[in-house]
Amino acid sequence: MPKKIVLFMTVVCCLVCTAQAAEDEEFVNPLFAEILEPLSRGTWQTTLTPTKRVINNKLGASREENCELLENTQTHITLKCRGIFAFRTREVEHTYRYTLRPCRKENNCDYKASWLVEEKVFDAEGEWAGTATLYIE
Fold first, then answer.
1. Confidence of residue 20 (pLDDT cuts 50, 70, 90)
2. 21 domain residue, yes or no
């Protein structure tokens, strides 16, 4: 009986430590935690954390996905996320790669942004599913 209790306590401690590590994780570059504004009309405002991706449109609708941080560098991050999309009844998995680029006139960037963020989307099979450009003021 004591072996079962020790095993149970070990499993619980491991789960708590894993959950705490995910909550404590931060982006190497804090710019990725800023609100990402869309350049195109078809893209929604995006907010990222190492464990979530939340998108909002101007009418108040929003969608949240639970994520796992796969890559975390100064210039890019990659998130593997799961969420329910419009007109679907089950969760769908996508991988998002966000890459930062400075917005400068010499780079032909005339936007009010300080940074451009390129979003590349891949489906569960790793096939390219789309690209969007967002910005950080």
1. very low
2. no
Structure tokens at 98: 């966000």
- Tell me, yes or no, whether 69 lies in a domain: yes
Longest Cα separation, the chain: 71
Distance CA 69, CA 28 (A): 11
- Domain interval for residue 39: 28-136
Give tens-digit pLDDT for 64-100: 999 999 999 999 999 999 988 766 678 889 999 999 9
The count of structural domains within the chain is 1
- Which strand (E) or helix (H) includes residue 94? strand 91-102
87-93 contacts, C-beta under 8 A, 24 or more apart: 92/124, 93/123, 93/124
| Average pLDDT, integer, range 47-54 | 97
* 95 Cβ contact partners less than 8 Å away, ≥ 6 residues apart: 70, 78, 79, 80, 81, 121, 122, 126
Distance CA 1, CA 5 (A): 7
Q: What is the pLDDT of residues 3-13, one digit of tens each?
A: 444 333 443 34
